[in-house]
Amino acid sequence: MTDYLIKALAYDGRVRAYAAITTDTINEAQKRHDTWSVSSAALGRTMTATLLMGAMQKEDQKITIKIEGNGPIGPIIADSNTQGHVRGYVTNPHVHFDELNGAGKLDVRRGVGTEGTLSVVKDLGFGQNFTGQIPIVSGEIGEDFTYYLAKSEQINSSVGVGVLVNPDDSIKAAGGFMIQLMPGADDALIDDLEKNLKNCPTVSRLIDEGKTPEEILAILAGGEDNLQILEKIPVSFECNCSKERFGAAIISLGKDEIKQMIEEDHGAEAECHFCRNHYHFDEAELEKLYEEAQ
Ligand code: ZN
User: Which of 53, 74, 252, 274 has the fewest CB within 10 Å, making it most exposed?
Assistant: First the structure.
């Protein structure tokens, strides 16, 4: 199944709901970064939650998430927009533990760490940014995003994200959901939602069983009659890096630095953190950049 995201309303518009299947997208990230099991799960959960938050934004706004925990994975970065494009990387892609956690799952909390911060930067356009930050409360990532939304944006929500990893490190299933209470949500509705959430299997298991984002939200909304689908958006791993962008970065280093690259290294190599694409600049290309530099 190709990855996609849906936006929906539930319970007569009193609940806003998002769900996405991201198996192919996280598989692409896994291959590009050569992540091992726990790093894959942490990166996949973060990218999926970032994608869901990206879908909440307006038009050409962008969102960047940075999770800096004290676990062996180190900082995790992901960004997304409203068009279903997401990318991300982890500082240490090679984290794997032989033992699973108490619930028989990959021990993401141990990989991420339980102390540190989750920060959100929203690029609102026109050079305007919004920044929010919370302490890590769980390290399992979904709960951290839930806490961020409550604390920083005053939105009562539930964020569930999950990744299943195959023995060969490829991604078996990945995806997530985010449901948010809107004004008008009363206690009876909240009780109902909590019951649905409690009885719902994990999102990675639902996706592994072949459930679609629509079917997952129907489970969470207590039936498809309670659900009104608003939009369906294709999802993919996309990076906007280019040789021109890296060229501009080299120009900004200044003439002395570029001269050194030409005379000592006879060229320059650049690698994108987000997608691991490589760019090579030969001497002639560096000469051109040298001319443009200050
Ligand atoms: Zn890139």
Answer: 252
**Prediction pTM value:** 0.95
Å from CA of 291 to ligand 1 middle: 26
Domain boundaries, the chain: 4-237, 243-293
Q: What is the whole-number distance in angstroms between the Cα of residue 1 and the centre of ligand 1?
A: 25
The rounded Å distance from CA 272 to ligand 1 centre is 5
Cα 73 to ligand 1 centre (Å)? 20
* CATH architecture of the domain with residue range 243-293: Alpha-Beta Complex (3.90)
Query: CA-based Rg of the chain, rounded to a whole angstrom?
Result: 21
Residue 4 Cα to ligand 1 middle (Å) = 21
pLDDT, tens digit, 9 for 90 and up, residues 1-23: 599 999 999 999 999 999 999 99
pLDDT digits (tens, 9 = 90+) for 125-182: 888 899 999 999 999 999 999 999 999 999 999 999 999 999 999 999 999 999 999 9
CA of 51 from ligand 1 middle (Å) equals 17
